[in-house]
Amino acid sequence: MPRSGFVQQASARALATNADSALHGMTKHLVKFNEDGFIVVPDIVSISEVHEISLRCKDLQFHRAGTRNLLNHNWIQALSLRISLHPIISRLLPSKAKSVQCTYFHKSKDKNWLVPLHRDTSIPVKVKFEAPDWDGWSKKEGVWFAKPPEEVLRNLVAVRVHLERNTIENGALQVIPGSHRHDEVANNRTTCDIPSGGALVMHPLILHSSSKLSSGRRRVLHFLYAPPTLPAPAEWAHAM
After folding, report:
1. 37-226 — its CATH code?
2. Distance (Å, rounded) from C-alpha 92 to C-alpha 196?
3. CA torsion angle for 101, 69, 177, 20 (degrees, to 10)?
4. Cα–Cα distance for residue pair 125/56, rounded to 1 Å
5. Which parts of the chain fold into alpha helices (H)?
6. What helix, strand, coil percent values describe the chain, rounded to 5?
7. Residue 195: what pLDDT?
């Protein structure tokens, strides 16, 4: 066989091996996500992009320690689309997923808080309505929020992009692995150490909490992804 034939065969074998390895890696991420309810994905955005996002966040107008309504910003819409196309994250999202909310959290010494164990069960909708299994209505920053039926919540995925490394010192999120499946679980909290530019991908139904920070700051863009439509008569307030 000519040398070029050997080279072509070797290249084909290498490509096949790399493809199998990549597929195995993505399958492993999906299995871990479904089992534990969360995974950490590093390098969602580069260090230079973290700096650019930080500058944009400085211009945000908000009271207290953040805002829930960032999807009306073009740069947030572009970032949410890019995140949804990430090779790992895209496999964890629901089919035809849309970004339906982006919240900015800014925890600092001046704006410091703790959050007890809870599940995220409130979603933004276009208008208030009366329907079975929808309750907990409230209006926040001009948008209606409600607790939907559990089958809606089970199809949601949150992606939290961190602008600085998040550790126990600056109020890292703590989760109870597997608690999104409503199993009887011990209070074995895991601290999510997230690198700058990385993301915590989580089921909103996982039990999670955070403590006050003791140093530094914690800035997070919290994206919520969902199927493009809700059971009638509900409609998403935004779906990008």
Report:
1. 2.60.120.620
2. 21
3. 40
4. 26
5. 3-36, 47-58, 74-84, 150-153
6. 30, 25, 45
7. 97
Q: What span, in angstroms and rounded, lies between the C-alpha atoms of 102 and 62? A: 14
% the chain with pLDDT above 70: 88
Q: What is the pLDDT of residues 175-222, one digit of tens each?
A: 999 999 887 677 789 999 999 999 999 999 999 999 999 999 999 999
What Rg do the C-alpha atoms of the chain give, in angstroms?
Answer: 20
Q: What is the pTM of this model?
A: 0.88
Q: What is the mean pLDDT of residues 36-62?
A: 92
Q: Is the dihedral of CA 88, 93, 97, 101 positive or negative?
A: negative
Q: How many CA atoms does the CB half-sphere of 234 hold within 13 Å?
A: 24
- Going by C-alpha positions, the residue among 62, 83, 39, 54 that lies closest to residue 217 is 54
Contacts of 52 (CB under 8 A, 6+ apart): none
Write out 3-51 in H/E/C secondary structure. HHHHHHHHHHHHHHHHHHHHHHHHHHHHHHHHHHCEEEECCCCCHHHHH
Residue 15 has pLDDT above 80, yes or no: no
* pLDDT tens profile 107-121: 999 899 899 999 999
In order of 12, 16, 20, 129, the CA distances from 7 in angstroms are: 9, 14, 20, 65
CA-wise closest residue to 80 among 15, 25, 159 = 159
**pLDDT (average), residues 225-231:** 97
